[in-house]
Design a protein that fits this description.
The complex is a heterodimer of chains A (about 350) and B (about 475).
Chain A lengths: L1 H18 L1 H10 L1 E3 L8 H23 L7 H10 L4 H28 L8 H23 L4 H14 L6 H9 L6 H33 L5 H4 L8 E3 H26 L25 H9 L3 E2 L2 E2 H22 L5 H27 L1
Antiparallel strand pairs in A: 1-2, 3-4
Helix pairs in contact in A: 3-5, 3-11, 4-5, 5-6, 5-11, 6-7, 6-9, 12-13, 12-14, 13-14
Chain B lengths: L12 H36 L2 H36 L1 H10 L1 H23 L6 H30 L4 H4 L2 H5 L4 H24 L5 H12 L3 H16 L3 H12 L8 H25 L7 H25 L3 E3 L3 E2 L8 H7 L6 H7 L5 H12 L12 H5 L4 H12 L19 H15 L26
Antiparallel strand pairs in B: 1-2
The chains are: A mainly alpha (about 350), B mainly alpha (about 475).
Chain lengths: ~350, ~475
C-alpha cells in the first residue's frame, strides 16, 4: 500500500518536474469565477469546447469511411449508416453535434455581448470569438455538401450563387470554392479539404488565442457586478469548484445530444442529381435561415443594385456593428452602453424572427 | 372484440396509458424508495440524536406525503380507468387471474396511505421510538405494494408456466419476477436519493447540507453497483424472440427499421451512465456546489433514465399484452387460426354486433381497423397510417395485409412486432378498402357517422370521445 502510494507520488513529482503541474494547479486555484445572477452564461464556453472536442473525435472516425468522390461520397455515407457498426451513431453525433454547437456559440456570443465582454482589455478575446463563430458557420456550410444528397447539393448551389453576387471578390470566391462555374468533383474536393484541414487549423490557432486571452484577463464581469462593493462580491474558485460544476453541465449537454442522436438519427436524402430539379421548398440549415429569409424579402432590383447584392450588403452593414462595438462602447458613456445593448437586442430579435419566419414560410 | 373500442385520435390510446403510467411510475417508485429513505434516515437521526436531521425529515415528509399520496393515488386510479378503456380484453384476463393479488395490493395501498398520514401528523406528538416504528411500518407497506404489483407486471412479459397450467401463482412467480423486484427496489432507492437531493440542496445550514447531499448521493450506489448484474439476470430470462428483436434493432439502427427498441436501449444506457458520472462529480466530489438548480436537472436526468427504461420494458412485450397469450389488440393467440377461418366479425360480442349494423365494405373495414390496428396505430397521428400507406393502391394494401395475416415468421417478417391480422380473406379486402380511403378520402368513411350509423343504438364509440 505504502509502496504504491510512494510510486504514485514519485510519478506525480516526475511529471511535475517536466510539465510544471504544480504551477498550473496553483494558477487554476487562483483563478476565480464571479458568482451572480447571470453566472449561468459562463458555462456556454465550456459546453462549446466540449462539443468541439466531440466534433473532432467523430469527424476523425467519419473520415475513415468517407470518400470525397462524386460516385463514392453518397454511397460511402449510406454504407456507414447501414453497414458499419454504430456508423449511424457517430455520423448522427457529428451532424447533431454541429447544430447544437452553433446554437451554443450563438448563446455564448450574445451572452458575452450583453455582459459587455468586448470592452477593454478583452477586445482580442471578442474578435477571436467572432471569427470562430464565422468559422463554425463555415464548417456547417462545407460539411453540409459532403454527403452529396440532393438537398445539400442544391442548398450549396444556392448559397454559392448568393456569394457570387458580393461586390469585388464575390464571383472570384464563389468560383474558387466551386472550382469552376458548376458544382462538381472539384467543389466536393475543395469543400472536403476546407472542412477537414483548413478550417480545423484556423480553429486551433484562434481557439488557442481565445482561451489564452480568457486566462490572461479572467472572466468578464457584468456592469452591475463591477459596481458592487468588494465585500459584496462573491467569487468561487475555478478549480475545483467551477470545473466540477462545468463537468455536470457537460454531462447534461451530452445527454441532450445523446437523446437527439438516438431518438432522431440523422437521415440521408437521395443522391444528388445535378441535372434534376431542385427539391420543392428547399431551405438551408436553420442557422442560415435568417439571411435566406431576409434575401427573399428584398426586391429583385433596388435602385442601381441587384436585389441579392443589395440584401447581402445590407446584412454586412447591419452585422458590422458586432465588429465595431469595442470602439464605440468603451465603458465611458452610459448612453453609448445603452445604444450598444439596444443594437444587440434588435439584432438578436431580428435573427430569431427571420429564422422562425424562414422555417415557417 | 368483446367490448367497445375507445378511439383516441392523433395521439392513440396507447399513449394515454403510457403518459399516465410513466407519471405514476415516478411517483410510486418515489413512494416505495422514499419509504425506505424515511425509515433509514430517521433511524440515523435517532442513533445520532441529531435534531437537525429530524427537522429536515419533517419538511421532506410533507413534500413526500402530498406528492405520493395525492398524485400517486390519482394516477394509480387513472391507470385502471385507462387500461379498462384501451384494452378491456387484456385487462379482463389480468383481473380474472389476479383477483386475490389485486385485492391484497389494494389493502396494502390503503394501509400505506393511512400510515403516511399518521406518520406526518404525529411529528412531535408521539415518542421518537414510536415515530421511527411508523416509518418502518410505512416502508413495509409500500414495499408490499411493489411485491404484489411486480408479479402482475412481470407476468405480462414472462407468463412462464402459467401458459400451460393456468394457475395464477405460476404466473405471479414468473421467470423475471425476482430480477425485476430487485431492479425496481434499486431504482426506487436511487429515485428516493435524487428527490432527497432536491430537498437537501435547499437546506440553509451549510454543514448539514453538505452532510445530507453526500448522504443522499449514497442512495444511488446500490443501483450503480448491483444494477448491471440484475439487469443481466433480467435480460437472461426474457423471451428469445424479444432478444432477437433487440439484436435486429441494433443491426438496423442506422436505417430505422425495427430499431425503436434498440434506440431506447441506447438512451437508457447513456442516461444511466450519465447519472453515474453526475453523482460522482456532483454531490460526491462537490457537495458544497450542489445547488437546487443542479439537483433539479439531476432529477430530470434520473426520471428520463427511468422513463426510457420503462418504455423499453413495455416494448419488449410487443406485440403482446400477455406474452405468447394475448396480443395488444386483445386477440388471443390461440384464437387467430379460428378467427381467420370463421371470420373476425363472426366472433366477439361487440365486434359482431357492430358489423351487423352495416353492409358497407369500407365501414366494416374501418371497424376492423379499430379492433385490430388502432391499439398501436392512428389514421394521421402517432404511427400514422397515412404516412405508412403512402401512395399504395387498394390492391397493394391488400397484398400487404395478406402477408400480415401469415402466422409463419418466414412468410411474415413483422410477426415479432405486430399481431397477425385475424380475419377472413373477405374481411381483409374490406380493411384494404378502408385503408385506401385514408389517403384518398373523397368520401370519408366513419363507423358511427350518418353514412353507416344504424338506426338502433350503435355499439361503437364515436371519434369524438
Amino acid at each position: 500500500m505504502t509502496s504504491s502510494t510512494n510510486k504514485g507520488c514519485s510519478l506525480v513529482e516526475w511529471l511535475d518536474a517536466r510539465l510544471g503541474l504544480h504551477d498550473a494547479l496553483k494558477f487554476a486555484q487562483k483563478k476565480q469565477v464571479p458568482v451572480h445572477k447571470h453566472s449561468v452564461w459562463y458555462y456556454m464556453g465550456g459546453i462549446a469546447l466540449m462539443l468541439m472536442a466531440i466534433q473532432v473525435a467523430t469527424g476523425v472516425l467519419l473520415m475513415v469511411y468517407y470518400q470525397p468522390g462524386l460516385e463514392a461520397a453518397h454511397s460511402s455515407i449510406l454504407r456507414l449508416n447501414s453497414s458499419v457498426d454504430f456508423g449511424w451513431f457517430f455520423r448522427s453525433l457529428h451532424s447533431w453535434g454541429a447544430n447544437v454547437l452553433i446554437a451554443v456559440l450563438v448563446f455564448h456570443l450574445f451572452s458575452a455581448y450583453f455582459m459587455k465582454a468586448y470592452r477593454q482589455p478583452r477586445e482580442f478575446t471578442w474578435y477571436t470569438g467572432l471569427i470562430l463563430m464565422v468559422i463554425a458557420l463555415g464548417f456547417g456550410f462545407t460539411g453540409y455538401l459532403l454527403p452529396w444528397d440532393d438537398v445539400s447539393f442544391f442548398a450549396t448551389k444556392i448559397g454559392l450563387d448568393i456569394a457570387s453576387k458580393m461586390p469585388v471578390l464575390g464571383e472570384f470566391a464563389a468560383n474558387l470554392l466551386r472550382g469552376g462555374h458548376n458544382i462538381g468533383q472539384a467543389t466536393l474536393s475543395r469543400f472536403f479539404v476546407i472542412h477537414v484541414a483548413v478550417l480545423p487549423i484556423l480553429t486551433l490557432g484562434l481557439l488557442g488565442i481565445h482561451l489564452l486571452m480568457v486566462q490572461v484577463h479572467g472572466m468578464s464581469e457584468p456592469a452591475f457586478f463591477k459596481k458592487l462593493d468588494a465585500a459584496k462580491k462573491t467569487y468561487e474558485k475555478f478549480f475545483p469548484n467551477f470545473l466540477l460544476k462545468d463537468v455536470l453541465v457537460w454531462l447534461l449537454a451530452l445527454n441532450g445530444l445523446a437523446a437527439l442522436v438516438t431518438l432522431c438519427p440523422w437521415g440521408l436524402g437521395p443522391e444528388a442529381d445535378p441535372f434534376g430539379a431542385a427539391p420543392v421548398g428547399i431551405k438551408p440549415e436553420w442557422y442560415f435561415l435568417a439571411p435566406f429569409q431576409f434575401l427573399k424579402l428584398v426586391p429583385a432590383q433596388v435602385g442601381p443594385f441587384e436585389g441579392e447584392l443589395f440584401g447581402a450588403l445590407m446584412m454586412i452593414v447591419i452585422c458590422s456593428g458586432m465588429a465595431l462595438v469595442p470602439f464605440y462602447d468603451k465603458g465611458d458613456s452610459p448612453e453609448k452602453a445603452r445604444i450598444a445593448t439596444f443594437y444587440g437586442i434588435v439584432l438578436l430579435l431580428g435573427i430569431i424572427v427571420f429564422t422562425i419566419w424562414g422555417a415557417l414560410s | 372484440m368483446n367490448y367497445p373500442v375507445w378511439v383516441v385520435p392523433y395521439l392513440g390510446s396507447g399513449w394515454i396509458i403510457g403518459i399516465i403510467a410513466i407519471i405514476h411510475i415516478y411517483l410510486s417508485h418515489f413512494a416505495v424508495g422514499g419509504g425506505a429513505f424515511l425509515a433509514i434516515t430517521e433511524g440515523l437521526a435517532y442513533k445520532r440524536k441529531d435534531e437537525r436531521i429530524y427537522e429536515y425529515l419533517r419538511s421532506h415528509s410533507r413534500f413526500f406525503m402530498i406528492l405520493t399520496s395525492v398524485s400517486g393515488a390519482v394516477t394509480g386510479v387513472a391507470i385502471w380507468w385507462a387500461i379498462s378503456l384501451v384494452n378491456p380484453d387484456g385487462t379482463a384476463i389480468l383481473i380474472q387471474n389476479f383477483t386475490l393479488a389485486w385485492a391484497l395490493e389494494y389493502l396494502f395501498f390503503v394501509a400505506e396511505l393511512a400510515t403516511i398520514f399518521v406518520y406526518y401528523y404525529s411529528w412531535d406528538r408521539i415518542s421518537k421510538e414510536a415515530h421511527l416504528k411508523l416509518a418502518k411500518l410505512y416502508c413495509f407497506m409500500s414495499i408490499m405494494t411493489l411485491v404484489i404489483i411486480n408479479g402482475i407486471l412481470t407476468f405480462m412479459l414472462t407468463p412462464g408456466e402459467w401458459i400451460h397450467s393456468g394457475y395464477w401463482l405460476h404466473g405471479f412467480l414468473n421467470p423475471t419476477y425476482f430480477p425485476s423486484l430487485i431492479m425496481r427496489l434499486l431504482i426506487m432507492f436511487a429515485i428516493a436519493g435524487m428527490y432527497a437531493l432536491v430537498t437537501s440542496s435547499k437546506l440553509q445550514d451549510e454543514e448539514l447540507r453538505v452532510m445530507m447531499v453526500k448522504y443522499c448521493a449514497k442512495w444511488l450506489v446500490p443501483v450503480l453497483l448491483i444494477g448491471p448484474f440484475v439487469a443481466w439476470w433480467f435480460i437472461a430470462n426474457i423471451p428469445q424472440a424479444t432478444m432477437a428483436n433487440i439484436f435486429t434493432g441494433i443491426q438496423s439502427s442506422g436505417i430505422g427499421n425495427f430499431s425503436v427498441l434498440a434506440r431506447t436501449l441506447y438512451l437508457s444506457f447513456i442516461l444511466s451512465g450519465t447519472i453515474l458520472l453526475f453523482a460522482y462529480f456532483g454531490p460526491y466530489l462537490n457537495p458544497r456546489g450542489f445547488t437546487f438548480r443542479i439537483a433539479i436537472l439531476f432529477l430530470i436526468c434520473g426520471l428520463a433514465a427511468t422513463g426510457s427504461t420503462e418504455y423499453m420494458r413495455e416494448l419488449l412485450r410487443k406485440p403482446y399484452v400477455v406474452y405468447n397469450y394475448v396480443y395488444c389488440n386483445g386477440v388471443l393467440k390461440s384464437k387467430v387460426a379460428e378467427l381467420q377461418k370463421d371470420g373476425f366479425f363472426n366472433h366477439g360480442i361487440w365486434a359482431k354486433a357492430c358489423a351487423a349494423q352495416t353492409t358497407d365494405d369500407a365501414a366494416k373495414g374501418e371497424l376492423m381497423f379499430r379492433y385490430q390496428c388502432m391499439s398501436c396505430h392512428t389514421t394521421d397521428g402517432y404511427r400514422s397510417m397515412k404516412k405508412l400507406l403512402g401512395e399504395r393502391d387498394e390492391e397493394a394494401i391488400y397484398g400487404f395485409l395478406s402477408m400480415l395475416k401469415e402466422t409463419d415468421p418466414e412468410k411474415n417478417q413483422y410477426l415479432g412486432i405486430m399481431p397477425p391480422v385475424a380475419a377472413q380473406d373477405g374481411e381483409l379486402k374490406q380493411l384494404a378498402k378502408y385503408l385506401y380511403t385514408i389517403n384518398h378520402s373523397s368520401s370519408a368513411i366513419n363507423v358511427g357517422s350518418e353514412k353507416s350509423e344504424p338506426k338502433a343504438a350503435v355499439p361503437v364509440k364515436s371519434n369524438a370521445i
